[in-house]
Amino acid sequence: MEIKKLRTRLRHKLNEYIRVLKISSKPDREEFMMSAKITGAGILAVGFIGFLFYMAANLLSQMI
Fold first, then answer.
1. What's the Cα-to-Cα distance from 43 to each of 1, 29, 53, rounded to whole Å?
2. Residue 32, class by beta-carbon neighbours within 10 Å (0-12 exposed, 13-18 middle, 19+ buried)?
3. DSSP 11-34
4. Measured between alpha carbons, how far is 54 from 64 in angstroms, rounded to an integer?
5. Which residues contact 27 (CB under 8 A, 6 or more apart)?
6. CA-to-CA distance for 37 and 14, rounded, in angstroms?
7. pLDDT at 1
8. For 24-28, 30-34, 52-56, which range has the lowest pLDDT when averaged over its residues?
9. Which is nearest to 11 in space by CA: 19, 25, 22?
């Protein structure tokens, strides 16, 4: 009985994955470049915020 449930769940999951792959399409060059720019800007923003925290921690530790 347990094996039947597992097979049913596995088959259902595989069907979901197949459905998503059928719907999805490869992005064109313009869409890819826009995604790359947005991702790069996000990485730079997070890095800059991390750097600011690092600098603030360094300055505070020197003051104390």
1. 49, 21, 16
2. exposed
3. HHHHHHHHHHHHH-----HHHHHH
4. 16
5. 35
6. 33
7. 67
8. 24-28
9. 19
User: Can you read off the two tokens belonging to residue 19?
Assistant: 């459905």
3-state percent helix, strand, coil for the chain, nearest multiple of 5:
90, 0, 10
User: Measured between alpha carbons, how far is residue 47 from residues 38, 39, 54, 56, 61 in Å?
Assistant: 14, 12, 10, 14, 21
Radius of gyration, alpha carbons of the chain: 24
Q: Give the contacts of 35 (CB within 8 A, at least 6 positions apart).
A: 27
pTM listed for this prediction: 0.60
For the record, the structure tokens of 52 come out as 């600011």
